[in-house]
Write a structure and sequence with these properties.
The chain is about 50% helix and about 15% strand. It is α/β, with parallel strands linked by helices. The relative contact order is 0.07.
């Protein structure tokens, strides 16, 4: 399907020259001769690329205002600014506001066409990546046989059929957004939108605009996350990063079920299921005055806690197998043969959690090693971690043999127990011991058994 370019210029001759140039290149076009026409076209349907003259009939910076309006709707749409009254300050301002390119009149037609081609390619790539990520995310499952993951899957099944607000707590990269998406997917709202607002990525001055939207002087409306998620689900990720004054406004929305847009005078009612997540301990944030306790209790109707990956080692082999299959399918290559008992993987700290593990497997897929040895080398280099045996040796050189042996056994058996999720029979079978002998060994080493 051919890309659509919006051309906005109050000079009919220039408008027609650009139009013919773009049509000859095989693209579709829409035209606007003034500010209000342009606004109507933008609000009707966003183009794939916009070409905006800076000065139209409304003021000296019409194009910059239209640029900001487009970016408020979709920051990825490329906008090319053209001007016959260009100066460095105007060029810098337009680029600062997010313009893709700035070009002066009279312009070289081939140069403008190159800008358009690059803009179309850029937007197309971003759209593909977005679709790919959405498809990838929606196809992912919550994988693991640890108690924590089994419990979370059970919780998801129970709370998805309710309308309760949910709070998901867990370290970065542990799968909080995936859990929220699964809740939405299994809920009655699954035919409607799932919107993500990341509190940690927002400009501190734009929280209200992003949440509540804005009514502009020209009568146009920029919709916020609450309206975009109407009848669906809104995930506020890293809710701990939202300023206290905005927290009080969120509390008011939860209480009144309505709000006003920025610069708006009328109440807006929405029907949204709210899910929040954080990698910080909100109870500690409340103690130090960074988060409202009354808001926390409103959000925390049902709480899900995700453990870090290094506390559920038994999930790692399953995740390796799962991601190897998924990534191989996505890259259309033979399934990766990654050793699920690789000591570098099992003993890595995984500060980035499941996301870090997925990224590692994607890196291996991109490099396409053709032997297990090459895969192992990529893992070593990527994790930048010393070998388990080398680590034990280094930690054991300054102690007597008996103590070093006990240290080795304790670390080794603790890892094996975690790998088999505390199952004594499976651990004993793997390490080559009788079940009763393993019980005695664990007791002697002071290792606490868990089920």
């Amino acid at each position: 399907m051919s890309s659509e370019i919006l051309i906005v210029d109050d000079n009919a001759d220039i408008r027609n020259i650009i139009n013919e140039l773009i049509l000859d290149a095989g693209y579709k076009t829409r035209l606007a001769a003034n500010y209000n026409q342009a606004l109507t076209e933008i609000d009707k349907k966003l183009p794939d690329v916009a070409i905006l003259d800076v000065k139209l009939d409304k003021g000296d910076n019409d194009g910059i205002e239209l640029l900001s309006h487009i970016k408020s709707k979709d920051k990825d749409v490329p906008v090319i600014i053209i001007s016959g009254h260009a100066n460095i300050e105007m060029a810098v301002k337009s680029l600062h506001e997010g313009a893709f390119e700035f070009i002066e009149k009279p312009f070289d037609q081939e140069r403008l066409l190159n800008f358009i081609r690059r803009a179309v390619e850029n937007y197309s790539l971003k759209k593909q990546n977005k679709e790919y990520e959405t498809k990838l995310f929606s196809s992912y499952e919550l994988i693991g046989n640890s108690k924590n993951i089994l419990n979370i899957n059970d919780q998801i099944n129970k709370i998805s059929i309710t309308e309760s607000r949910v709070f998901i707590n867990g370290p970065s990269g542990s799968g909080k957004e995936l859990i929220a998406r699964k809740i939405h997917k299994l809920s009655k709202r699954n035919k409607n939108t799932f919107v993500v607002l990341n509190g940690a990525l927002l400009d501190s001055n734009k929280y209200e605009l992003e949440l509540f939207g804005e009514e502009k002087d020209n009568g146009s409306i920029s919709y916020g996350a609450l309206e975009k998620a109407n009848k669906g689900t809104l995930l506020i990720d890293q809710v701990s990063e939202i300023p206290l004054d905005i927290q009080s406004k969120i509390l008011r929305v939860l209480t009144d079920q309505k709000f006003k847009r920025v610069n708006g005078s009328n109440d807006v009612s929405v029907n949204v299921r709210l899910i929040c997540s954080s990698s910080k301990d909100l109870k500690k944030e409340i103690e130090i005055g960074n988060f409202r306790e009354d808001l926390f209790h409103r959000l925390n109707v049902f709480e899900i806690n995700v453990e870090p990956l290094n506390q559920r080692i038994s999930d790692i082999p399953l995740l390796i197998k799962y991601f190897s299959k998924k990534v191989s399918e996505n890259y259309n290559i033979n399934e990766l043969e990654i050793d699920e008992d690789n000591s570098y993987i099992l003993n890595h700290d995984w500060h980035g959690n499941v996301r870090e593990l997925r990224n590692l497997i994607e890196r291996i897929a991109i490099l396409q090693p053709d032997t297990k040895e090459k895969i192992s080398n990529i893992i070593k280099e990527s994790l930048k971690n010393i070998n388990f045996n080398e680590q034990l040796a280094e930690n054991s050189l300054s102690v007597p043999l008996k103590e070093a042996r006990e240290k080795f056994e304790k670390e080794y058996l603790t890892i094996q127990l975690k790998k088999f999720n505390g199952n004594i029979s499976k651990t004993a079978n793997f390490v080559g011991m009788e079940r009763s002998a393993l019980h005695r060994k664990l007791k002697g080493l002071g290792i606490k058994e868990f089920n």
